[in-house]
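User: I'm curious whether this sequence folds into something compact or stays loose and floppy. Could you predict its structure so I can see for myself?
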Amino acid sequence: MSEAPVTKSMESKKPVTLSGTAKDAKHAPTLGLVDIGESKRAYIFRVSLPGVCKPQCNVKLDIRADGRVEIKGLMQDSQFINNHAKKYKPRVQQLAPSGNFNVVFNLPGRVDPRLVSPTFRNSGILEVAVMKHTIPNNQPINPGTPALSS
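Assistant: Here's the prediction. I'll summarize afterward.
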């Protein structure tokens, strides 16, 4: 299996920060993998959140105007594990443990955090489209100090 080529726009130090169970999952389906795409008017991103189920989806999405995205959530043990907690003794644990997680990354540019369309898939993928920040046509890019009339 070959790795995907890294382009200059994709290069950066620590593009995604993981903490909590997202960081602790060493061998599990990786929590917090991120794909970021761009169209003319929006950024589109996908985040893997395996084990975060839709019925008990405890996920908070925070998108700031500067393009910073923060996803906080809670991984919960399954109902199956809860029902068998007294009999269940883990021998191998490769899935992310239960607990809080936090995924933080930056989009390539400014956005309008009021214009967000998130979709959480049953597959554990969070898909989000967020509109880019635009300046109205009648507003100058840098208004500065108004000129004095003589």
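Summary: The mean pLDDT is 76. Residues 9 and 108 are 9 Å apart (CA to CA).
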